[in-house]
Specification:
Layout: E1 6-14, E2 20-29, E3 34-38, H1 45-52, E4 60-65, E5 68-69, H2 74-78, E6 81-84, H3 96-106, H4 113-122, H5 138-150, E7 156-160, H6 168-183, E8 187-191, H7 195-201, E9 204-209, E10 212-218, H8 219-226, E11 229-235, E12 251-253, E13 259-264, H9 271-284, E14 289-296, H10 299-312
Parallel strand pairs: 3-8, 3-9, 6-7, 7-8
Antiparallel strand pairs: 1-2, 1-4, 4-5, 9-10, 11-13, 11-14, 12-13
Helix pairs in contact: 3-4, 3-5
């Protein structure tokens, strides 16, 4: 396997007052992937991003990006990293084009109007190039942040809640832009409250809570291993007991005997085979049913379940 583009080992951050925002984080990011970092508010996502991007000074641990130790050779590595922050930290009276051009020069890149035009056109901002940022909609302001982050052609791009406060249509447009960046070979680390974004785009998913990484895995593997299929079968007539033919399945009979609930398989649909077997067993036993409602776990279901288990422990 190729050397990770970003390698974090034992990263800690304790703020004055004793708040421990990061607690021994280990994480490797592969070149060219989209990695989704999921966690509740206060989990440490933004602190972790800030540590890599030079906005937060870690208390302990190491960060290597592109083979450079950020503690010793931060400037070289940082020039290859882009950040789209949550907050709109930019001069609202500046025009779109000037703001993006300034970001290009900030990292020592020569003035390249063609590059700026390409970025603005790709984000549907070219028509707004001479408009002051304060006059833009929330979605357009978010796009300006992405344009500023892309101005120096980063190889590693952090997107910290990039679609927060953006309507559904604009969110879909940004998803398209992220897909284009991946095609160009940009490595992307994404944090989001919209877990469907991670489910749609991510190659791998990491879950963080309390400053600790709970799990990192391929998205599909995570959903297959931790996901479930749930089927609720409404019976035509109440049953007193569960038939012996269903004893080998993960089924429960409701207290009134009118509903059968199955949970098993995996979130990629493997449990649906068992649901079919259950309905066949019901038919052979002469038990009629009126409706079946089948639901496969989403990434959000798995995420919520993992956090719930951690809190319960």
């Amino acid at each position: 396997m190729d050397e990770p583009i970003l390698s974090i080992r034992g990263l800690t951050k304790t703020y004055r007052g004793g708040t421990r925002a990061l607690d021994g984080v280990d994480l490797d990011i592969r070149k060219g992937e989209i990695f989704a970092l999921l966690g509740p508010n206060g989990a440490g996502k933004t602190t972790l991003i800030g540590a890599v991007c030079g906005l937060v000074r870690p208390t302990g641990g190491t960060i290597h990006a592109f083979g450079h130790d950020l503690a010793r050779d931060w400037r070289t590595a940082r020039a290859r990293i882009g950040l789209v922050p949550q907050e709109l930290a930019t001069d609202m009276f500046e025009t779109v084009r000037r703001a993006v051009t300034y970001s290009q020069g900030l990292f020592g890149k020569p003035h390249d109007p063609a590059r700026i035009e390409a970025i603005l056109r790709g984000l549907s901002l070219w028509d707004k190039r001479d408009t002051q940022i304060r006059a833009l909609s929330g979605g357009m302001k978010r796009r300006v942040l992405i344009a500023k982050a892309l101005a120096h052609e980063p190889e590693l791009l952090f997107l910290d809640e990039p679609t927060a406060g953006v309507d559904v249509e604009l969110r879909k447009g940004m998803w398209d832009q992220i897909a284009v960046l991946k095609e160009r070979g940009v490595t992307i680390i994404l944090t989001t409250h919209y877990i469907e974004e991670a489910e749609l785009m991510a190659d791998r998913v990491g879950i963080i809570q309390g400053g600790r990484i709970l799990m990192v895995d391929e998205k599909r593997a995570m959903m297959e291993r931790l996901g479930t299929t749930e089927a609720v079968i409404d019976l035509a007539m109440p049953l007193a007991v569960l038939p012996a033919s269903l004893a080998s399945f993960h089924c429960e009979l409701s207290a009134d005997g009118t509903r059968l609930t199955y949970r098993g398989g995996n979130g990629q649909g493997g449990g649906r085979t068992e649901v079919a077997q259950i309905t066949q067993a019901l038919t052979l036993a002469g038990i009629a049913y009126t409706t079946i409602d089948i639901h496969d776990s989403s990434l959000e279901d798995i995420f919520v379940g993992l956090l719930g288990e951690k809190e319960a422990a």
